[in-house]
Automatic annotation (TrEMBL), chains A, B:
Its EC number is 2.6.1.1. Signal peptide: none annotated. Pfam families: Aminotran_1_2, GntR. This is Transcriptional regulator, GntR family domain. It is an enzyme of class 2 (transferase). It comes from Paenibacillus pasadenensis.
Length: 459, 459
């Protein structure tokens, strides 16, 4: 079968770009089973002779388009749902294999208590052999939620276990909250710059984004109020503590004022907090949720990132009516986060080693931050030195384009996030986000030397 | 604070059902912090004196409405999104604490290889200590997907690892596929009866359901074709192998014919397969996906249910263009199923003990099925004896109402699923689903005696 086809291709029976007969037609023509033809077509596809485009059939391959990624080249679009858009603009960068990865705001696995966690995990499994055969409830394990509510209460948060939902990563909490509270055509406030998957999610939901600049001292609250009054946004997605990508922290008085605005204009605040324990000197202010007496905040709290990111255990806290609006989507999405990860998280999060680990981690991360600042000190580039978190938000010299700098850096095997990816308006070409959390001091210095080399002669 | 309020309530300062001042107003009135007031209100809420309704405030409680569940009594609706509906109609039944639980199509944990799995889990964690600090990719672990593709290929499925996505339970796969492929107002074919969360999901998406009866010998394909031609449904959600709730299996010739209809009318088939390994005599026919040469099937394959349900590891298989439409939603939903569960699944699914376990499980489940049939033999009720799966779909005698029978059975501490919950048209009061997988033979006999006792004098 393949031979007949291969020969047909070689002798020009079909031209480059031309559609060859469908699997069904070819099977009938040759009198063979359709699966035989499918296998043959696939073999020739692997050999690069054909290009697959299931719905519209197979095509004779002309040439490999420049920059074609695996799975692209699909001509037929299902087009039914709203999903066929960009996945995550960050992931394109993360997929590049580079030596100096300053594009990912992730902790270096060597800083995590892996052996300790593995030992804990073994104890948990040994002592609860039925764990693997048990489903979690939709809201998450009751014991874990009780323990976490207590932990949060000790940290000035007034809440009960009933106000906590366990999610598979904070990302899931964000996805559920957005989908529960927004409809296509709705408006939402979003920080500028912001955590880029939030932009992707809101775009995909067909929501109109109203950007609010975040600055070292917070927001322009007059502008926030004007937008809330004039545009009536359904929600405001914010990341007020060691903000990603800038590292800025919204001051306490603004937090309280935001709550009042939220109440006045009936605008829900989606507060994303991931790194508040990774402060370098003083702990940050309490989250907005601490002031939420009227039920206007959805608080997304990620912890597993600095313990065991692979566990994907995070919490969504909200007052009961708001939580009741989100819960059905969690039930439909996965019926509850897998129990094993919840129990493992619980076992080590509440162990005494946890606070020791955090204390060490703060020192290690702050040393890396200083190493990055040191390596950039002669560059003439500028930034606000963050008081916590994983990122430096750097302003490039006049005329230097972040995306062009990224291209040149990638050639030298160093990656970072260019400003436009974090900008709901797709601008901010004068900014880049450099994460100092994944590489050690020596590799940070080497990687930044590459970026600076790439910048030479630009701008 | 609480005392002042308690006294005010006692002396009738506010009438039953009346709104008391908001947290903000009361705090200003008393000159105390808002959080103090919130805590006070909550205390009185716990004491049953107040009823919370955050947005509109707190109300003096009149009396506890009959049948009020935790978290209900909310008067304010966020109303923004599409989520504020029923969660799962099944879960209401599952929440009831009963002694004889024949409502859940779950395997008895004592039939699962728990100790063996726990040992495997410990080995996996010991040998891969970095597992807990590593994120999965969006599509799932490459090694697991390669292994599963090989396993499926050995079982007559032509597919590659690139056509497989790991999902957090088959439920997540269904949610992602529905959301990727459907928009509000679209039409979808659905079996009647069907797996009830599918009904909940489609309702929540605002999709118009077109029911297709499933019978012991499959569907009326003429009707399916007429519906496809006239209504142009986007997809058909089906569960053709040991169908839930009926246990019916769609024959091979219908499977092939369905593929042809799907191609002709451009209707995607969402094929849900959960229990095909739990056959009592002969293995069932190959899934529809085995015949999918043109890319019209999304195949949802659950395995973890009969190994370690708590792991929540399932697979979604589809040809590349269809998968490409679903993938972005998985990226947004959770960024990838937690890696630990994937590696644990892989470790024991591909062990030699797995096939031994399955062989024993088939015997155990078929004995329970026979025990259930035995216990019902004198009832005069009728059913098709299933060739696999976990459920008996029983027809009640003329005039007996399933929901009424459930009420009376619950009083005797026995639960099952009444027909209407499985029916997209909310009828089928003459049917009930009895699951024989969770209770052992003795308890099945006892539980069914209760159900028959409840039925006495009815109908």
């Amino acid at each position: 079968m393949e031979e007949a086809l291969r020969s047909g291709l070689r002798h020009g029976r079909w031209a480059a770009g031309e559609k060859i007969p469908s699997v069904r037609t070819m099977a009938e023509e040759l009198g063979v089973h359709r699966l035989t033809v499918l296998k043959g077509y696939r073999l020739l596809e692997e050999e690069g002779l054909l290009e697959a485009s299931y719905r519209s059939g197979y095509y004779v391959r002309a040439e490999v388009p420049a920059g074609e990624a695996a799975g692209s080249g699909v001509r037929w679009s299902y087009g039914a749902g709203t999903a066929c858009g960009a996945e995550s603009r960050l992931s394109d960068i993360h997929r590049r294999a580079v030596r100096y990865r300053m594009s990912e705001a992730l902790l270096d696995p060597t800083l995590l208590p892996n052996r300790f966690l593995a030992r804990h995990a073994q104890e948990v499994i040994a002592s609860q052999p039925l764990l693997l055969s048990t489903y979690s409830t939709v809201m998450g394990d009751g014991e874990l939620r009780e323990a976490m509510a207590g932990y949060m209460q000790d940290r000035r948060l007034e809440l009960s276990a009933e106000e906590l939902m366990v999610t598979t990563g904070a990302q899931q909490g964000m996805d559920l909250a957005f989908r529960a509270l927004l409809q296509p055509g709705d408006k939402a406030l979003i920080e500028r710059p912001t955590y880029s998957p939030a932009i992707d999610m809101l775009r995909q939901l067909g929501v109109r984004m109203l950007p609010v600049e975040i600055r070292p001292d917070g927001y322009d609250l007059d502008r926030v109020e004007k937008l809330m009054a004039a545009e009536r946004p359904k929600l405001f997605y914010l990341n007020p503590t060691y903000h990603n990508p800038t590292g800025y922290t919204v001051p306490v008085r603004q937090r309280k004022a935001l709550l009042e605005l939220a109440e006045r204009y009936r605008c829900i605040l989606i507060e994303d907090e991931a790194y508040s324990d990774l402060y370098f000197h003083e702990p940050p202010p309490a989250p907005l949720f601490a002031y939420d007496t009227e039920g206007w905040v959805v608080y997304l709290r990620s912890y597993s990132k600095y313990i065991a990111p692979g566990l994907r255990i995070a919490f969504l806290a909200a007052r009961p009516p708001l939580l009741a609006a989100i819960r059905p989507l969690k039930a439909l999405a996965d019926g509850g986060t897998p129990l094993l990860g919840q129990k493992l998280f619980q076992s080590f999060f509440f162990s005494h080693r946890m606070q020791e680990h955090l204390a060490k981690l703060r020192v290690a991360v702050s040393m890396r931050k200083e190493a990055m600042e040191q390596a950039l000190s002669a560059s003439g580039w500028s930034w606000e030195s963050p008081a916590g978190g994983l990122n430096l938000w750097v302003r490039l010299p006049e005329g230097m384009q972040a995306s062009r700098l990224l291209e040149r850096s990638l050639e030298l095997s160093a990656a970072f996030v260019p400003g436009p990816i974090c900008d709901p308006l797709d601008a901010m070409q004068d900014r880049i986000r450099l994460s100092y959390s994944l590489l050690d001091e020596r590799r940070l210095a080497e990687g930044l030397a590459r970026v600076l080399e790439a910048a030479e002669g630009m701008g």
